Amino acid sequence: MTPLFDRPAWQLAIFGGVITGLAYQPWHLGFLAWIGLIPLLHIWLDHDANENARYGYVFGMTHNFIAFYWIGVNSGASFWVVLLSLIAAVLHLGIYWAVAGWILGRVKAYGNGLVLFPFLIVSMEWVRSFGALGFPWGNMVLSQLDFLPMIQIMEVTGSYGVTLWIALLNVILYILIQNFEPNKKLGYFLGILLLGLWFSGNSRMKGFNDSLTNMGVAVLQPNIDPNAKWDYKKRENTITYMDSLHSLAINLNPDLILFPETAFPAYLRLDRHVRGQIQSKVDSSGIPVLTGTVDRTKLPDGKKRYFNSSMFLTPNHKYILYNKLHLVPFAEYIPLSDQFPSLNMLNLGQGNFTHGSEYTVFEWKDIRFSNLICYESSIPEITREFIQQGAEMLTIQTNDGWLGKSAGPYQHYDVARIRAIENRVPVVRSANTGISGLILANGVSMKEQGLGEMAVFKVTVPLGATGSFYSRNGDVFAMICFVIFLLLGPIPCIRRRY
């Protein structure tokens, strides 16, 4: 055994989890993901299914705790609620690694475990994206934004193509470390893989900053403490402050002004006074505004429904509302509360919002665009649907102020860069406390504003051909990887048993 692996399995699992988790931090350590899975691979090849599940769970909990510790620093809820949220998230996400380890332990005798491993990791990430608790945010591509040329394949494969080559790289390095034969051929394959990804990706990155059609967007980053925004005593000062930022944005003479999520402490549809102030400036300047707001409707039975929304106000026209489609579980609603209304009685500090139902596409000066609200940017299917509906540009409104200067806001901004590459669409992001900026369709970030800073700035968004193979076909690549895994492992296992 290589001395590197002459350690108890539980220590190797923790070590691999630490290395992989660190790759997700905004410290430019993404290369650690290229080796972070090696200890786990060694464990899974050397133990039975039940042990694999146990050590996979240790790896998964360690990895997710380090990568997403910021779940536990949310200032929008009590200490015990956010701590419970972090613990629950870590325990939940660890299950996927446990199940993957158990499966590999059951089928590796009927197929080459080294070959099965990359397809298993892709399949695990794909399955983890399903349902109300789906978490595509955690996909391994999030650790690779420092290596833009190597992730341009997402326009075809989605994020799962990046996961495949990362897992494959871990396998090849493991084989070389263990001195398996034939080493030279694997070394050549590794070099060709990396160089091919780099050169092809570098070639694809060119040209996304040039366009015959552009849209000027003024972006507001107010930097308001989200815990103080809804303080009634500060309400008028907050509205006055936002109005002054609106004036600064108008002076930049853009085509559109973008406010962040829940920019005003008001239900704008119902508060005609505040909405009237905004509309007056929109009418006088001729520049439309897309602002975040909250909305409330009343049902015939007297019950009220609340929405996290965006309002598009145009000169001398009625407003258009978009209601957030994908809410944050346990923060904006309780999963299954639609089927079991009694769950709404749980008080975990959540907002009890209602899901929106329509994919709204706004239009101004013959340019069509759609808006993602906060966590929605982490859901690939929502972005794809907006592109299929005709959006040429995406805006994102968010409020990451709850997370302070943790890794959360940095990861959230990189999530937006992933969506831009996948769909070959430019993205303009307005975040209350940062990070705001323009993201080109190749993932390059421009005019990026720092955390905890006030900023009003203008970006010129290049518009052109929007959409990609991934936009049109979705997770076909992940499905193919899943089928390959079934054909190489579980199906031969079942056939030999029966």
Folded structure, characterized:
45% of the residues lie in helices and 14% in strands. By secondary structure, it is α/β, with parallel strands linked by helices. The protein folds into two domains: 3-206 and 475-497; 213-463, Nitrilase/N-carbamoyl-D-aminoacid amidohydrolase (4-Layer Sandwich), CATH 3.60.110. The strands form two sheets. Strands 5-4-3-2-1-12 form a six-stranded mixed sheet. Strand 9 (427-431) and strand 10 (437-439) form a beta hairpin. The mean pLDDT is 88.
CATH topology of the largest domain: Nitrilase/N-carbamoyl-D-aminoacid amidohydrolase
Tally of individual domains: 2
Figure out the total of helices.
17
> Cα-atom Rg, whole angstroms?
24 Å
The CATH level-2 architecture of the largest domain is identified as: 4-Layer Sandwich
Structural class: alpha/beta
